[in-house]
Amino acid sequence: MGSKLVGCGSAVPKLMVSNDDLAKIVDTSDEWISVRTGIRNRRVLTGDETLSGLAMEAAKGALHMAQVDPDDVDLLIMCTSTPDDRFGCGARVQRDLGCKNAWAFDTTAACSGFVVGLITATRFIKGGGFQNILVIGADALSRCVDWTDRGTCILFGDAAGAVLVQACNGDEDGFLGFDVNSDGNGQKHLNAVAKEDGADALLNSNGAPLFPPKKSSFSFIQMNGKEVFRFAVRCVPQSIESALEEAGLSTSSIDWLLLHQANQRIIDAVASRLQIPGEKVISNLANYGNTSAASIPLALDEAVRSGKVKAGDTIAAAGFGAGLTWGSVIMRW
Ligand code: ACO
C-alpha cells in the first residue's frame, strides 16, 4: 500500500512581532537579526488563541483541499513540543475537528517533529487499515523562550501546518524515500530541560515526614547557536542524500528543497552543499521565524497555494533540531 499527499493547510496567530519590536525589549537590531538569520517578523500567540486552535484551522484547510470529510479520518498525529496540555493536545484537536472515527496521539521530536510524523503516517498506511491520516506540525516556542535573551528570543515564532496523507496503490506512491536520525550526545547544545525543585515533605498520618515530592517545570530554551548551525549544515545534506538513495533519485531530480525554516544561512549552506540552485529552494522564514514542527507544512502550504509547487513535483523535505534529531523525506506533491 502506498501513500500520497492530498491536502495541506496552515494557520498563524494574529499578532506580528517585527525585529524593530524586539529591539525595544532586548539589545538587538533589525539589521543584526536579518543579516544573521534572514528573519524579519514572527507571529506570537496572544489572548485567547491556543495552539490547538491553530492546529485545528490548519487541519481544516488540509481536509478542505483534499475534499475529505472529518468522519473519514482514521488517525491524527499531532507533532509538537509545546502542547496546550502537558499530556498532549492531539485528542482535543481530533474532537474539535469532529473526526469522530479517528484516534489521535502526540509526538515530540522538536523541529524534526513534522518529518517524523509524516514518516510515521506512511508506515501506518503501509501496515494496512488506514485510509486518511492527518499529520499536524504545530508549535508555540514563544511559550518557552526567555524574552530577555537576545540570543534565542529573536529566532522563534508560533504557527501550525497540516497535511492529509491518503492510502493509494503502490504505483501511485508519493513517498519515495526517507531517512531519520537522532544523537542524544548533542542534547547539550539545544534543550529546554525539566527543572525539579524540591518541595516540603509530605507528612504521614502521624505527622512524620514521608517524602519530598518533586515539583517540575521546564527551563527556557538553552542553545549553543554555533554548534546547532554546524550540526545542521553537516547532517542535513547527508540525510537528504540517504533519502534520495533510497528513492533511487539524485539531487537533479528535486524540484523543491524544503528545509525546516531555522535560519536562511543554514538553508543556503545546505542547498549549496547539495548543489541545488536558489530558485528551487522554498523559504518563508522572513515572515514567520523558526516555527519548529510547523515550519515545513506552513511553507509547503504557502508554496502550494501560491502555485509554486505543482502536482507531480518532487520535494526533498528535511527537519532538524533538538534531541538532536534530524530526518528527510522525498515526496511527490
Ligand atoms: N542582537 C545583537 N547581537 C547579538 C544577538 C542579537 N539578537 N544575539 C547575539 N548577539 C551578539 C553576541 O552577544 C555576540 O557578541 P560578542 O561578540 O560581543 O560576544 C555576537 O553577537 C555574536 O554572537 P554569536 O552567538 O556568536 O552569533 P552567531 O553568528 O553564531 O549567530 C545565531 C547566532 C543567529 C543564533 C546562529 O548561531 C544560528 O542561527 N544558529 C543556529 C540556531 C538555530 O537554528 N537554532 C534552532 C534550531 S531548531 C530547533 O530545534 C529549535
UniProtKB/TrEMBL annotation:
Keyword Lipid metabolism recorded: yes
Domain of life: Eukaryota
GO molecular function, one term: beta-ketoacyl-acyl-carrier-protein synthase III activity
BP-aspect Gene Ontology terms: fatty acid biosynthetic process
Pathway: Lipid metabolism; fatty acid biosynthesis
Cellular component GO terms held in the UniProt record: chloroplast
Domain Beta-ketoacyl-[acyl-carrier-protein] synthase III C-terminal: start-end pairs: 244-333
Listed transmembrane segments: none
EC number: 2.3.1.180
Beta-ketoacyl-[acyl-carrier-protein] synthase III N-terminal domain residues: 105-184
Catalyzed reaction equations: malonyl-[ACP] + acetyl-CoA + H(+) = 3-oxobutanoyl-[ACP] + CO2 + CoA
Keyword annotations from UniProtKB, A to Z: Fatty acid biosynthesis, Fatty acid metabolism, Lipid biosynthesis, Lipid metabolism, Transferase
Family to which this protein belongs: Belongs to the thiolase-like superfamily. FabH family.
Function: Catalyzes the condensation reaction of fatty acid synthesis by the addition to an acyl acceptor of two carbons from malonyl-ACP. KAS III catalyzes the first condensation reaction which initiates fatty acid synthesis and may therefore play a role in governing the total rate of fatty acid production. Possesses both acetoacetyl-ACP synthase and acetyl transacylase activities.
Protein name: beta-ketoacyl-[acyl-carrier-protein] synthase III
Organism of derivation: Ananas comosus
Lineage: Eukaryota, Viridiplantae, Streptophyta, Embryophyta, Tracheophyta
